[in-house]
Amino acid sequence: MTYAYLQLDxxxxxxxxxxxxxxxxxxxxxxxxxxxxxLPSIRRLAxxxxxxxxxxxxxxxxxxxxxxxxxxxxxxxxxxxxxxxGPARKAAPPAYRHRPLSAVRYxxxxxxxxxxxxxxxxxxxxxxxxxxxxDVLAAYGEHQGETELREALAAYSYGARGVVASPEQIVIxxxxxxxxxxxxxxxxxxxRTVALEEPGFTQAEQIFADCGITVLKLPCDGDGLRxxxxxxxxxxxxxxSPSNRVRTGTGIPMSRRLELxxxxxxxxxxxxEDDYNGxxxxxxxxxxxxxxxxxxxxxxxxxxxxxLLLPSIRIGxxxxxxxxxxxxxxxxxxxxxxxxxxxxxxxxDYIKSGQMERHLRRLRKLYxxxxxxxxxxLRRAFGPKVEILLQETPLTLILTVHTEKSAGELCRLALKNxxxxxxxxxxxxxxxxxxxxxxxxxxAAACLKSAWENEP
Length: 456
Fold this sequence. Notes:
alpha/beta; Arc Repressor Mutant, subunit A; globular; about 450 residues; 3 domains; 18 strands; single chain; about 15% strand; Aspartate Aminotransferase, domain 1; Aspartate Aminotransferase, domain 2
């Protein structure tokens, strides 16, 4: 018997059962095999194609599950009506080929940290300790986050940032965006407009848009979000990053923080305080969180550990206001926890053992040295051709490059020379210095100079 519709290649990296399944599926979809056409028995097809019976049976079973074939006891396998309009799908997908990426020698991306300054040995020990807790790992985690971690975070956030929150107010999640999405579901109907300082924050804006909350980008002055614009907007929700303003790289001064807290108290508004890397300030002591200044009233606090530990450890937390906590409690069991239970236990031990505090002290010193060295290297390489803005807590420098080339073209030229940089708002260039080794900074700046000045 001939099987012209079967395309099998025993030298292919695709398993034979998969090739057989795809070939028969394609024959049914194209109409080559019509409804009620009988297929060869498993034993016969295996013998004709020199395949094992297990290979044929696996393909037939999958086709039955997906509704392309039906099995009739004592009679065999028959095609069902699954003909597709238009061209049928190919029998087998093309072989996957990795696309070669440009070699990156110097990474100024803002999405990585310096692997040489990670507490990997200690972190592995904490992970092993968590994995050995078979009694708790055999069950689903707590919806709000593990109690051990919430207790540790309540103490840590108070000591490091002055956050006033009990473990019951803290909610754990896999980073800021999942937590912000959950928070949006708790916001009352009269707070469905959120005010952000220009130029905004893309990741937060996307979550607000997904949740049907209107985003207003309001003008700012030297101190931050303008209070007159906020009052006129009618918004009852404000999203701020007090430790680092996107436009200036500086924090919001205490006078404006107090004005924002007064606005929240008088209007019944809610402030969402995104304290991204707030504890990593190194040129002076970190500014206390707004949430703590107001005793936890009217402010939802968001914190994470992407630069403090590893970007791949997706754990963030938020401290809810008493009002929002009351709205959250009845529905808490309906939310699945998004952060790894193993990572939560490991992080709780890391904090309680004092390792977090010691690591934080090391990082503050390291990032201070890195930022100064990179600033000097860039000024030496480019002089007045670039303006440099330090964004301390995000661990980045924002460059205004005086050139006719666009930011996209500058990024392309840098990558061509092995240097990865990113675009920033307003046609500027972002250089993250968390991930680049200290010893590479001078060479990286020289390579960047060559990329931007030697190209026509």
